[in-house]
Amino acid sequence: MVYLTRVEHFNAAHKLYNESWSEEKNIEVFGKCANPNWHGHNYELFVTIKGEPHPETGFVFNAKTLGDLIKEVIVEQVDHRNLNMDVPFMKGKFTSAENFAIAIWNELKPHIEKEGALLHYIKLQETPRIYVEYYG
Amino acid sequence: MVYLTRVEHFNAAHKLYNESWSEEKNIEVFGKCANPNWHGHNYELFVTIKGEPHPETGFVFNAKTLGDLIKEVIVEQVDHRNLNMDVPFMKGKFTSAENFAIAIWNELKPHIEKEGALLHYIKLQETPRIYVEYYG
Amino acid sequence: MVYLTRVEHFNAAHKLYNESWSEEKNIEVFGKCANPNWHGHNYELFVTIKGEPHPETGFVFNAKTLGDLIKEVIVEQVDHRNLNMDVPFMKGKFTSAENFAIAIWNELKPHIEKEGALLHYIKLQETPRIYVEYYG
Amino acid sequence: MVYLTRVEHFNAAHKLYNESWSEEKNIEVFGKCANPNWHGHNYELFVTIKGEPHPETGFVFNAKTLGDLIKEVIVEQVDHRNLNMDVPFMKGKFTSAENFAIAIWNELKPHIEKEGALLHYIKLQETPRIYVEYYG
Amino acid sequence: MVYLTRVEHFNAAHKLYNESWSEEKNIEVFGKCANPNWHGHNYELFVTIKGEPHPETGFVFNAKTLGDLIKEVIVEQVDHRNLNMDVPFMKGKFTSAENFAIAIWNELKPHIEKEGALLHYIKLQETPRIYVEYYG
Amino acid sequence: MVYLTRVEHFNAAHKLYNESWSEEKNIEVFGKCANPNWHGHNYELFVTIKGEPHPETGFVFNAKTLGDLIKEVIVEQVDHRNLNMDVPFMKGKFTSAENFAIAIWNELKPHIEKEGALLHYIKLQETPRIYVEYYG
Fold it and tell me: Per-residue confidence at D20, pLDDT binned at 50, 70, 90?
């Protein structure tokens, strides 16, 4: 089993805010991330496929195809968008890095399986000092 | 003359939008950056002071003081904020990286001169592939 | 299960030296790392928490709380210190990256569990080309 | 169990080409990577050893010895070489990152075991956006 | 005056070889870079434009236009190519990073001036430890 | 004129301490950097040579020769050393990054000129957030 990872990039705005809480509680829990006028990040998205290298190519999966698929399925929907307002697959969810990584996994998985490949891992880097990882 | 640089980090939302233009012209010129619901970045801010090392310390300037000053004067005003809506020193300006770097220079300069030091250079990294530089 | 990682930074001096060996044996085994007058590193410390996102926040753990906890429990004790001389939790230990990572794990674990969270992983980057990892 | 990783660097040329296919099929599958006159990369090779720290050194393995061994066994054979033409252990293989990582694992393993250590993991970074991982 | 930089990436093969010299002299001067079967690099290309921000956009130059132009004029010609064999604008030149940076400058300059902008600086990173810079 | 830069790495211990001051004043001015038992850094040293590419090689200077020269003249003297105690060319100087960069310049310059080349610039990165630059 070999693991192939492709990294893609996008920029987005979001805020962390629980509408069922008071403004005070939101600031107490989410701090500056609760700013009502939004903030944003340069996200780095790592997507890992696992499998055995194909005898005719040496590839677990075609890295260019993987990049195109991530761009089409994820980046097109989130790049230069507001995660809370503009992204259908985040509707009704808190836009924490954790929830966002799970949602990206759920979006990507059927597309990768349709290509006959196995999704192994998602890493989402939100800032140089914070990232989340998800294995399904 | 020696040059001392301190790097600080912040996250912010913004959009590039000229209100005197049509939506179409905004999208034509600014592309995805004109998204009405904002997008955002992890900014890296480089601030360079120049001078001769002081004979009693070997310092051109105290790097910790410089970091504290950048945090107090700039980061506190822009971190986890909306550059178009929340930042007094960007009011009425397009929030391009170029304009933002010039405005940061103008904010920082008097504070650095009050400490008896010379501001030499600002670098503002907006994405891993785009940055601007300003020497006043 | 989602994994949340926070990265913190510190600088420290240390040396690798076995007092029960001759100077020659120390140099043979530890090379330049045995320099009696110390050397030092910029360490990057990665701390990973695992869990399910909380339904009211979307957080596995609050990343700011995690950063504050790492700073209070670890960084305050090791930053700009001598690992062999100044750090109580390294007393009597060789200050290899391996031992240091295990000791950091043991220091952090009760504090993280007191917050109701699960410590999953420590990564300690000692130089750009050397790092160690520990899962308890 | 602690994991120690050493990172080494090399540059090489290669192409992805299946001689049993037509030129058209090669370009369809491998795209620009099939360029008959080669292309190349700066590779970063991560090698991870696992074990318990030795009580007399605090080391799982000597990181300098590990670096020397990677340089002698791998880097000397591949640095500034053509992976398809010049590297005996890649003879007759497609030089995909996947196959290359497996071949590096097979080259390194006996040398690391001869030193009484356990090879745990290979990571081979081919471009800033593509890497593969192998655990044997 | 503000400086705007865009970074683009490509991979290429090359060798350093003076055909008017003996094999021995080539190896003496160019070392492993003279390998007859080529080696290669992941190049990072930094292109800097200078000017005043335009009052209607805040831009010195549109960073997306700049990226598209670098990709069209340079990356399309050199990515996944052999610099000695496949690149018309390097014909008859030693493919040192120095010569390559000058040639990239000469290719880019008229295209950037046609857009009414001023090319200020080229940086070409050949390996993590070697780069060249050119100001025309 | 083209500029060629080579980056080399070393680790060292040091402290910032003015012996003619009280302990209190040292802590007030140098903060944690005055820790009597030292701290340390992973330093990155950038050395830039300027000149015209030689018509027979395309080189401003041989990058391997430059790396060897930096290693011989600087890295051998400072790597895994205590800058205050072990380094002859820092004797009697405060080991600030500023003073250290000037001293490195003065050490390197005659060796580079003996090779017929022009030293243009030194950059010394002390931490990921602090660096100094010197042009002589």
Answer: very high
Nearest-angstrom CA–CA distance, E16 and E38: 9
Distance of alpha carbon A10 from the chain centroid: 10
**Predicted pLDDT of residue F5:** 98
**CA atoms of E111 and E106, how far apart (whole Å):** 10
CA distance A56 to A53: 9
**CB of B18 within 8 Å of any CB in chain E?**
yes
- The minimum CA-CA distance between D95 and chain A, rounded to whole Å, is 7
The encoded tokens of residue A40 equal: 């944003």
Query: What is the length of chain F?
Result: 136
Mean pLDDT (whole number) for B44-66: 98
pLDDT one-digit tens code per residue, D65-92: 999 999 999 999 999 999 999 999 999 9
Search chain C and give the residue with CA nearest F127: C42
Distance CA C88, CA C99 (A): 14
Retrieve residue E25's tokens.
């002299």
Domains of chain F: 2-134 (3.30.479.10)
Q: How confident is the model at residue A115 (pLDDT cuts 50, 70, 90)?
A: very high
pTM equals 0.98
> Residues of C numbered 97-116 whose beta carbons fall under 8 angstroms of chain D's beta carbons: which are they?
97-99, 101-102
Chain-centre distance of CA E33, in angstroms? 18
| Helix runs in chain B, H state only | 23-30, 63-70, 76-78, 97-114
C115 is catalytic: no
CB atoms F134 and B6 under 8 Å: no
Phi, psi torsion values for E8, nearest 5 degrees: -125, 160
Mean pLDDT of chain D: 98
Q: Give the chain D residue whose CA is nearest to the CA of C125.
A: D5
DSSP code, position B117 = -
- Given the DSSP bridges, would you call strands C81-82 and C118-127 parallel, antiparallel or unpaired? unpaired
Percent over 70 (pLDDT), chain F: 100
Q: How far is D121 from A53, CA to CA, in rounded Å? A: 17
List CB contacts (< 8 A) between E6 and chain B: 129-130
Write down the pLDDT at residue B65.
Answer: 97
Do chains C and B touch by CB distance (3+ pairs < 8 Å)?
no
Number of CB atoms found within 10 A of residue C128's CB: 13
Q: Tell me how far apart the alpha carbons of residues E113 and E105 are, in angstroms, rounded to a whole number.
A: 12
Q: What is the mean pLDDT of residues F102-118?
A: 97
Mean pLDDT of chain F: 98
Give dist(CA E88, CA E93) in Å, integer: 10
Banded model confidence at residue B58, pLDDT cuts 50, 70, 90: very high
Segments of F52-90 assigned E as strands: 81-82
Does an interface of 3+ CB pairs under 8 Å exist between D and F?
no
For A42-59, b where at least 16 C-beta lie within 10 A, e where not — what string? bbbbbbbbbbebeeebbb
How many Cβ pairs closer than 8 A exist between chain A and D?
Answer: 53
Residues near E55 by beta carbon (within 8 Å), at least 6 away in sequence: none
Q: Give CA separation, B37 vs A23, A35, A79, A83, B43, in Å.
A: 21, 14, 12, 9, 19
Q: Which residues does E71 contact at the CB level (< 8 Å), separation at least 6?
A: E8
Distance from CA of E94 to the nearest CA of B (A): 28
Determine contact, residues C85/F15, Cβ cutoff 8 Å: no
Q: CA E62, CA B28: separation in Å to the nearest integer?
A: 11
Give me the mean pLDDT over the E14-39 stretch.
Answer: 97
